[in-house]
Amino acid sequence: MAAKITRMNPETLHETPGYHHITVVETGRTAYLAGQCPLDPSGTLVGTGSIEAQVDQIVANALAALAAVNAEPQHVVRSVIYVRSDVREDLSTAWSRLTASALGPAFTSASTLLGVAQLGFPDQLVEVDLTVALPD
């Protein structure tokens, strides 16, 4: 049986810029993707100093990871986006680039956007963590 995914925003909570406060998965299997980093297939960091270039590589990597488990962006039920910055505009840039990308439907589910002090690789500015309700 395929997973039934319901996304909702209770009227008693604030409006969101595209994500839903609650995502409910009725049934099925779940995949937890490791944090998707802006690394190319050789393991080299892409886009030093550019949030946009790093997001683009993360999108490519996340789409490849989803394809490996026969899933698509709309099967994502939770996302956490980490941006190495305390500048609100940098977080907004990452969010806007992600939601406008081919991975965009992933960010209509429950989502958290965080500014952090450090990420795992030197010069890394963005990382995305995804949880997926797998289709049958």
Describe this structure in words.
With 136 residues, this protein is of the alpha+beta class. Helix content is 22%, strand content 26%. It has helices at residues 51-68, 88-99, and strands at 5-8, 22-25, 29-32, 76-83, 110-115, 126-134. The strands form two sheets. The protein has a four-stranded mixed beta sheet, with helices on one face. The longest helix is centred in the middle third of the chain and has 18 residues, at 51-68. It is globular, with a radius of gyration of 15 Å.
List the topology elements:
Layout: E1 5-8, E2 22-25, E3 29-32, H1 51-68, E4 76-83, H2 88-99, E5 110-115, E6 126-134
Parallel strand pairs: 4-5
Antiparallel strand pairs: 1-2, 3-6, 4-6
Q: What is the average per-residue confidence, as pLDDT, rounded to a whole number? A: 94
Residue windows where pLDDT falls under 50 for at least 5 positions = none
* Tally of DSSP β-strands: 6
How far do the termini sit from each other? 7 Å
Radius of gyration, whole Å: 15 Å
For the largest sheet, list the strands in their spatial order: 3-6-4-5
Which sheet architecture does the biggest sheet show? 4 strands, mixed
Topology as a string of helices (H) and strands (E): EEEHEHEE
Which class do the helix and strand fractions yield?
A: alpha+beta
Question: What percentage of amino acids are in beta strands?
Answer: 25-35%
Number of helices: 2
Helix content: 10-25%
Q: Label the overall shape.
A: globular
